[in-house]
Design goal:
The structure holds 2 protein chains of 2 kinds.
Chain A: E1 2-4, H1 5-15, E2 20-24, E3 42-45, H2 49-63, E4 67-71, H3 75-78, H4 81-89, E5 94-100, H5 115-119, E6 125-128, H6 135-147, E7 153-159, H7 160-164, E8 166-168, E9 176-178, H8 189-201, E10 205-209, H9 211-215, H10 219-229, E11 233-235, E12 250-253, H11 260-268, E13 271-275, H12 281-284, E14 295-300, E15 314-317, H13 320-332, H14 338-341, H15 343-355, E16 361-362, H16 369-380, E17 386-389, H17 393-400, E18 410-411, H18 422-432, E19 438-443, H19 453-459, E20 465-470, H20 475-484, H21 500-507, E21 510-514, H22 520-529, E22 534-539, E23 572-573
Parallel strand pairs in A: 2-3, 2-4, 4-5, 5-7, 6-7, 10-11, 10-13, 11-12, 13-14, 14-15, 17-18, 17-19, 19-20, 20-22, 21-22
Antiparallel strand pairs in A: 1-8, 16-23
Helix pairs in contact in A: 1-6, 2-4, 2-18, 8-13, 10-13, 11-15, 16-22
Chain B: E1 8-17, H1 22-31, E2 37-44, E3 50-59, H2 61-73, E4 77-82, E5 88-99, H3 105-114, E6 118-122, E7 126-133, H4 135-145, E8 150-155, E9 159-162, H5 167-175, E10 189-191
Classes of the chains: A alpha/beta, B alpha+beta.
The complex binds flavin-adenine dinucleotide and thiamine diphosphate.
Thiamine diphosphate (TPP) is lined by residues 390-394, 417-419, 443-446, 469, 471, 474-477 of chain A.
Amino acid sequence: MKITGAEILLKSLVEEGVTTIFGHPGGVILHGTDPASDHPIKYILCRHEQVATHAAEGYYKATGRTGTVMVSSGSGVTNCVTALTDALVDSMAIVVLTGQLPAVMGWDAAQEVDTVGTARGCTKHCFMAFTTEEIPRIIKEAYFIARSGRPGPVLVDLPQAVMTGCVAYTGHPKSVAIRGYNPQMTGHPGQIKRAAELIAQARRPVIYGGGGIIHADASEELHELVEITQIPTTLTLMGLGALPTSHPLWLGMLGMHGLYWANRCLIDADLIVAIGSRFDDRVTGKACDFGRQCKIIHVDIDPTSIQKHVKVDVPIVGDVRCVLRELNKELRKVKRNWARDFDEWYGQIEVWKKQHPLRYEQQQGVIKPQYAIDMILRLTEEYDPIIATGVGQHQVWAAQFYRGRKPRRWLTSGGLGTMGYGFPAALGAQAAFPNGLVLNIDGDGGIQVSLSELSTLVDYKLPVKTFVINNKCLGMVRQWHQRVSAHHPLPTGPVHQPDFVKLAEAYGAVGIRIERPEEVKAGIEKAINTPGPVVVDVVVEREENCLPTIPAGAAITDIVRAPAPTPDKSSQTWH
Amino acid sequence: MKGQIPPRRHILTLLVENQVGVLARIAGLIAAKGYNIDSVSVGETMDASVSRITLVVHGDDWVMEQVVKQLNRLIEVIKVVDLTEEEFIEREMILVRVNADPPNRAEILRIADIFRAKVVDLTHRTYTLEATGDEDKIHALLELLRPFGIKELVRTGLIAIGRASKTPSTKLERVAGGDGEEGAKKSPAVAT
Ligand SMILES: Cc1cc2nc3c(=O)[nH]c(=O)nc-3n(C[C@H](O)[C@H](O)[C@H](O)COP(=O)(O)OP(=O)(O)OC[C@H]3O[C@@H](n4cnc5c(N)ncnc54)[C@H](O)[C@@H]3O)c2cc1C
Ligand SMILES: Cc1ncc(C[n+]2csc(CCOP(=O)(O)OP(=O)(O)O)c2C)c(N)n1
């Protein structure tokens, strides 16, 4: 029996285990976005294609399963570009299915865009289907490429003629063979041995883990490595959650806005063990000064990440999980009293911690943003929430004060830093875990980039709790301005601001406002106990800065620290 | 690691899927580094599903190392070799139309002869020559013809082949279906 391309597409998606599609419809993709109501695939209609694509990123990061997006041609596609780029730099496995006009191309027809040409620079790979018959093979390859190796976004362009064409469905391919693509999974045994030897000799080692540990689902293996070797561990913004933050050897985040002692460890270490992290300039500062004093081991599945910015001594190309399993085997054989050997090193770290603790002072009157965020994290920790963030100061504070026990619970836009990411990422995660606690910690700027999605949350009864850390300005930009041009008027405020509580209500969600420090605890508790989507407007101090910071372009040693605490007895200090 | 050695000529030879859009991806990747492609030539290999692309690019060694890795990362790229570090033979073909007024004709023919160039077309006032050679030879020929007045120059772009004894290039031949050797550098990913 012959069936249409659209039907074949849906069958192929079911074969690939797709259960949720995020999208926005249009003329030429109608055939795809219209599965019957009893179809095993749930279609979530978002209000904007960028949002649908970020939602798929959130879905992937939270579940480890590839997120799926379906959008129409033309502007439907161009609206995806930012989110595709975001997914590319942060290595998020998503597949975006785009509608296309009938097969003839290049006629400047209505809503025609050179989709594949547009997507080339912002995808791991893109396909164009020329015939209905090739749909199953392309879908199989698309999902394989998106999720394997270094994950990334894949786009499949589906002309209307291909979607409406009728052919016999011959089943889903059992396997893929792509001769130009073969990610190296296992690490070179010789290199793994060399790495083990270096680790066994180190006196002041530090583990610098990143997003690759999450993508490889290798948190357990990392945990084991830390248990065997007792090496203090720091993670990048993208790696948060790979080690429980309650672990005694957890140092906190490193990097531009990382914790002082975590960065100091990298400056003073005699060995850096980089695992699934890519030496981003927000971590290394001026790369030429980075790691000069020590040996570096680097595990990454993507050869282009290795020796890119920083020269490393033992590169290991491979999947983090495969490599760590072998490495842990080697290290178990080492006869060494690790903890005792590192005693001095631990002592040094304690000194740094005491010298420059991460702190803020919550006084009477105005809520400090750090206090609000710290309280949100403390009060929700027991529920293992999934936390999404926007981009800016609130994101940095959320990372600095992050508490979490498990991987895949921290969703943030790191490489591209896309404002407006929080809402859709939370939406995508909540769609995957309808009963889990999903928070979005956002800025008053970022929330307005994707506020439309409040409608989607209400529509699909997705109970995301959003906390707007409202400093009434584009805080991060205000902070940069303050540093580069202290005397110029800032283009970042004051600006007119909507009433977020009324807005929430207008969308059919619940709005809560918190304005005084003593309301913070009760307000957060109320929000998480209120069913359905909630927006909490947390009005905070405007002039607070994210510290410590390594100014852009400076070396990691130029870290700018928070000022010494004022001896004010009435204030409350958290460490 | 940046800029220790000044930019120099790199000859990249690639085996790629013979498909729509592959060249665009490759060109885009090199453009994104801010590098100009000096020459490019493309042709099918003995296996019609595989094309060979030869690129000439001037760039820093460390950037070119990244370029090679990133080219390798492209799904449609089966194999990339930077021949710069290898022993290889290079050729380019040119067609050049040069002013050939009667008093200069003998001299132009003498030059053509020395460079083993052929006259492939002529008018009362011009000769069109066909010549092949490596970069130095082509350059020298053009310098000698320049005083007569070059009316038009068409170049194929450089092609290059590794010396037979060199392993990377023989590996390349295998992928290209040459000589019946089997096995490619990137063996296919198989998933079920
Ligand atoms: C306002 C702002 C402030 C920031 N401040 C900081 C900061 O202070 N500190 C910080 O760390 N970041 C910060 N960032 C984020 C930063 O820009 C980078 O996104 C981040 O450092 C990159 O993290 P990563 O190295 O873990 O790499 P990722 O981007 O997560 O990349 C993962 C790496 O792992 C590899 N990989 C993937 N899968 C596997 C696998 N299965 N096996 C092996 N390897 C794999 C990939 O090839 C890649 O190299 C900030 C961002 C913003 C917007
Ligand atoms: C789409 C986009 N545009 C611009 C920027 C530059 N930018 C970085 S942080 C920031 C301000 C964010 O303001 P807000 O969301 O209120 O968060 P805050 O820093 O105040 O916590 C801006 C404009 C960006 N990251 N993304």
